[in-house]
Amino acid sequence: MLRYLTAGESHGKAMVAILEGMPAGLKVDPAIINQELRRRQAGFGRGLRMQIESDRAEILSGLRNQKTLGSPIALLIRNKDFSIEKLPKVASPRPGHADLAGLLKYGFSDVRDVLERASARSTVSVVGVGAVCKIFLSEFGIKIMSRVLSIGGENTRPAMVAKIKEAMENKDTVGGVFEVVVKGVPAGLGSFVQPDRRLDGRLAAGIMSIPGIKAVEVGLGIGYGFSFGSEVHDVIHYKKGRGFYRTTNNAGGIEGGVTNGEDVILRACMKPIATLLEPLGSVNINTRKPSRASVQRSDICVVDAAGVIAESASAFVLADALLEKFGADSLADIKSAYRNYGKRTA
Ligand code: EPS
């Protein structure tokens, strides 16, 4: 079983992750983890915090001579903006953020006590974990990538950039839709025998758990609801040497909660960032009187980064499913089980 935990406040000392269940014998190049962390920081529309930070992971445990030991891998990413004790109190929760719900839930009287952990800064830990999972998956020829499909309803590059500029000028924010594509996935990951083993559900939960995500689709997704079965199901073919294959992939590589050997295709929608420089109406939590929502330093658009984070969330789920299918503990043992399975299913 692969599992992870994250810790850290946005302006605390550091962001932390512990990944447990990675098999022994995997070479982990820290440069690859740092490259993924850099990808998360990029994209047009990011705010000033990303100019302060240059996220780098320190690997505290789980490796010896750059190879995994099968023990928990602990990652530490220091915050340059470590100012949590000095930051002012916040009285007006932002619509669209965890502020109000968190305040009510935990009994706080300062919105900052919510936003420090609710901040999407926590996704730096997810990307650190995802990078290690990606390195593991690459041993099996599995590759994960993402791209932005639309921003604010626009789907050409110049129109998307213009939309973000418009949001900047209007002191507004803008969301969008991105796609994650996983290539080289073997058939048979996940299972239909229990609801919680279905891979589509696990991937959707992983992506939906990224701050700001409001919808996830697998393959044709919502589009299935507008079609006849004869128009959308992917016809099965077989060729010696190639094995079973399809010429369409509306299923997004998953049927019955199990991968079918085609690319896994996921799409998700990220809402516009909740912090608006021209704030919406809110209520002061001390006086209970109408006020404007608080304004925190923030981003204008983070759909690019959300794609990178969703790659990481997907990498974790797929690595977990691959370990379930082919065993754990030793990379060499897993590879040998994987090769045998490949022969049987060819
Ligand atoms: C983020 C760090 C945060 C925000 C952003 C994501 O840093 P700060 O709050 O210091 O500017 O830039 O978080 C949010 C937009 C949010 O709503 O939580 C990061 O590292 O990605």
How do the SSEs run, as a string of H and E? Answer: EEHHEEEEHHHEHEHEHEEEEEEEHH
Mean pLDDT: 97
Annotated CATH topology: Chorismate synthase, AroC fold
- DSSP, total strands: 16
Shape: globular
Question: N- to C-terminal separation?
Answer: 27 Å
**Biggest pleated-sheet summary:** 4 strands, antiparallel
CATH superfamily: Chorismate synthase AroC
* Total count of domains: 1
CATH architecture: 4-Layer Sandwich
What's the level 1 CATH class? Alpha Beta
The protein's oligomeric status is: single chain
What structural class is derived from the secondary structure elements?
Answer: alpha+beta
Strand content: 15-25%
Bound molecules: ligand EPS
Explain what you see.
With 346 residues, the protein is of the alpha+beta class. It has a single domain, classed as Chorismate synthase AroC (Chorismate synthase, AroC fold), CATH 3.60.150. It is built from ten helices and 16 strands. The chain has a four-stranded antiparallel β-sheet with strand order 1-2-6-3, covered by helices on one side. The chain has a four-stranded antiparallel β-sheet with strand order 7-8-14-9. It has a two-stranded antiparallel sheet with strand order 4-5. The longest helix is centred in the last third of the chain and has 24 residues, at 303-326. 38% of the residues are buried. Bound molecules: ligand EPS. Ligand EPS binds at residues 10, 47, 49, 81, 119-121, 123-124, 273-275, 296-299.
